[in-house]
C-alpha cells in the first residue's frame, strides 16, 4: 500500500466512523423518546430507497446538493470559503426563469443550452463580485457572500411581487412556462424506453449534475488553471513567486462557484416548478457547504455526501410521517449531528485511525 492509498483509507475510515457516531447518538435520542431506533433507521432507508417514488425524491434532492457542494468545493481549493451559494443559486435561477419566459415558444434543445449559459453568467457574476472585493479590496468573502445572499433575496421579492407576478394573482411567483421548455422528468424519459415508474420531481438535470461532477474533477486536477487555483489555495506567497496571479484566480474561482450554484435553477425551475418562485433554493446553498466538507471537497466524495443528504431529506420526511414522536425538528437534529461529526469534528478520531493504518502498512 503506497502513501496515496493509505491517505484515502484514512479519510474513508474517519468519515465512516464519524457518520456511525452521529447515527449512534441519533439512535440514543430516538430511544429516549420511547421509539425503536432500528425501526426508525429501517423507516428512513425505506423512505429513501424502498420504492421508486422515494428513490426519485432522494435523487432529486441529491441533484441540488451536487451543484451547491461543487459551488463550495471549487472556492475551497482556491482558499476561499464561499457561503454565497444560496444567493448565487437564486440569481442564477432568476436568469433561467427569464430565459424560459422569453423563449417559451422555442425548442427545448435550444432553450436548455441558453438557460445553462444564462445561469452560468447570472450566478457567475453574483459570485465574481465578492471575488473582486476579496482580490482587489481585501474584503473577506464570508462577509460579502452572506450580504449578497440578502441582496439577492430582496431583488427576488421585489421582482416577484411587483414585476413578474401576473395581474390579479396574489402568489409572489411568475406565470407557468409553456410545456415545451420543461426538462423531461425521469418517468417520461423511462417511458421512452417502455419502462414505467412513478412520477416524481426527478428530471433530466440529474444526468447533467453527474456530468458537472466529471467536468469539475477534470478542471481541478487536470488543467493548468486548476493547478494555479490549488497553488493559490495552498500558499499564496508561493503562487506569487511562481508568477501566478492570485487576484485573477480568486475572481475566476468565485465566478465558477456562482455558475455551478446557478444550476440549481435548472433543476428547480425548468425541471420541477416550471415557474420562478420565492425561496426555491430553500437552504440548499448552506447544505452544500456541509456536503462539500463531508465529501472532502472532491467530486466523488461530494456525490456520496449529496446522496447521504438526499437520504436524510427524503428518509427523514418519511420518518416524521410514520413515527408520531419524531417530527421535522428531530430530523434536522440528525442532519446537524452528521454535519457536526463528519464536518466540524472530522479529525476527532483521525490520530487513532492514522496509527491503525500505519500498522497495516508496516505489515
Order of helices and strands: HHHHHHHHHHHHHHHH
Count up the helices: 16
Q: How does the major sheet shape up?
A: none
Global morphology = globular
Distance between the termini: 10 Å
What's the average pLDDT?
A: 89
Number of strand segments: 0
Q: Share of helix among residues?
A: over 70%
Compute the gyration radius: what is it? 21 Å
Number of domains: 2
Structural class: mainly alpha
Low-confidence runs: none
How would you describe this protein?
The protein is mainly alpha-helical and 363 residues long. The chain folds into two domains: 1-35 and 325-363, no CATH class; 57-322, no CATH class. It is built from 16 helices and no strands. It has helices at residues 3-32, 37-49, 52-77, 85-102, 108-137, 141-162, 186-192, 205-222, 224-234, 236-241, 246-262, 264-273, 284-294, 299-322, 328-344, 350-362. It is globular and about 70 Å long. The mean pLDDT is 89.
Amino acid at each position: 500500500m503506497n502513501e496515496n492509498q493509505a491517505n484515502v483509507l484514512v479519510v474513508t475510515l474517519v468519515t465512516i466512523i464519524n457518520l456511525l457516531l452521529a447515527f449512534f447518538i441519533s439512535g440514543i435520542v430516538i430511544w429516549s423518546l420511547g421509539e425503536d431506533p432500528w425501526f426508525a433507521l429501517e423507516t428512513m432507508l425505506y423512505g429513501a430507497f424502498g420504492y421508486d417514488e422515494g428513490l426519485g425524491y432522494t435523487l432529486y434532492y441529491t441533484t441540488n446538493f451536487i451543484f451547491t457542494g461543487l459551488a463550495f468545493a471549487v472556492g475551497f481549493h482556491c482558499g476561499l470559503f464561499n457561503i454565497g451559494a444560496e444567493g448565487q443559486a437564486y440569481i442564477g435561477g432568476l436568469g433561467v426563469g427569464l430565459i424560459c419566459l422569453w423563449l417559451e415558444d422555442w425548442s427545448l434543445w435550444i432553450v436548455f443550452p441558453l438557460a445553462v449559459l444564462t445561469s452560468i453568467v447570472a450566478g457567475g457574476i453574483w459570485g465574481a463580485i465578492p471575488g473582486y472585493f476579496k482580490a482587489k479590496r481585501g474584503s473577506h468573502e464570508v462577509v460579502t457572500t452572506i450580504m449578497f445572499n440578502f441582496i439577492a433575496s430582496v431583488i427576488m421579492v421585489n421582482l416577484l411581487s411587483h414585476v413578474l407576478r401576473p395581474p390579479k394573482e396574489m402568489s409572489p411567483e411568475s406565470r407557468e412556462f409553456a410545456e415545451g421548455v420543461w426538462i423531461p422528468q425521469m418517468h417520461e424519459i423511462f417511458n421512452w424506453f417502455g419502462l414505467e415508474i412513478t412520477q416524481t420531481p426527478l428530471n433530466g438535470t440529474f444526468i447533467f449534475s453527474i456530468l458537472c461532477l466529471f467536468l469539475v474533477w477534470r478542471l481541478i486536477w487536470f488543467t493548468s488553471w486548476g493547478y494555479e487555483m490549488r497553488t493559490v489555495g495552498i500558499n499564496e506567497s508561493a503562487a506569487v513567486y511562481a508568477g501566478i496571479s492570485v487576484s485573477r484566480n480568486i475572481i475566476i474561482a468565485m465566478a465558477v462557484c456562482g455558475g455551478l450554484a446557478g444550476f440549481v435553477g435548472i433543476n428547480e425551475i425548468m425541471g420541477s416548478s416550471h415557474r420562478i418562485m420565492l425561496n426555491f433554493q430553500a437552504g440548499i446553498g448552506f447544505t452544500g457547504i456541509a456536503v462539500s466538507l463531508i465529501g472532502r471537497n472532491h467530486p466523488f466524495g461530494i456525490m456520496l455526501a449529496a446522496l447521504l443528504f438526499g437520504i436524510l431529506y427524503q428518509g427523514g420526511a418519511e420518518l416524521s410521517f410514520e413515527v408520531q414522536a419524531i417530527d421535522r425538528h428531530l430530523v434536522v437534529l440528525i442532519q446537524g449531528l452528521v454535519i457536526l461529526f463528519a464536518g466540524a469534528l472530522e479529525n476527532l478520531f483521525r490520530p487513532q485511525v492514522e496509527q491503525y493504518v500505519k500498522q497495516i502498512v508496516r505489515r
